[in-house]
Amino acid sequence: MKITTMKFYDGAKERICRLGLSELFLEVQQVILETEVCVLEQSEANGAAVIRERLDATFKSQDEWVLSKSGDIDWTKRIRYNSSVLARLGVEIQVSSRSDQLTRDLVHLRNSLRAGKIDAGIVIVPSDRLQSFLTDRTPSLRDAVRIFEDEFKEAQEYPIVVISIEHDGPGEALPKKKTNLGKGNTALSARGRAV
Partners of 91 in the beta sheet? Predict the structure, then answer.
């Protein structure tokens, strides 16, 4: 994948450098760049869950990145010197849920920053262009900026980086996740239409 934009809030860039988190920040960028994703470049033609799965798989292949349980930050990694933990970086990946889930991710990051569980946070979202090829209501950079700068301004008071990502190029449509597969229910596409 490609990185199209990075927005730094509350001195996140300086904190990442000062606390020695630069290597981890570069690892996050490397995870994004190593994750291959091509999409059918047509409006709402692709499911977003596959992108999330591929990013998670790339994180799992890296050393010492820890996947958290639901309700917490998605991925964390810490820097150690001998047996002491010096600093931690947290990453939230928000590519496949509704855009309003970005607020929940910011709450997770805020709470973890306040509690000293992490020292800086990252939120990964699709670029506005990539989002146009995904199912409706998935988040985009535009949504993240609106939430950070208008709807949840408190988030600007924490060292958080928003990174927008874009696919590598045109390809086959990514499958849409089917939901509501309970007994007697019709399978639905991500848009809620029967398939």
Answer: 75, 122
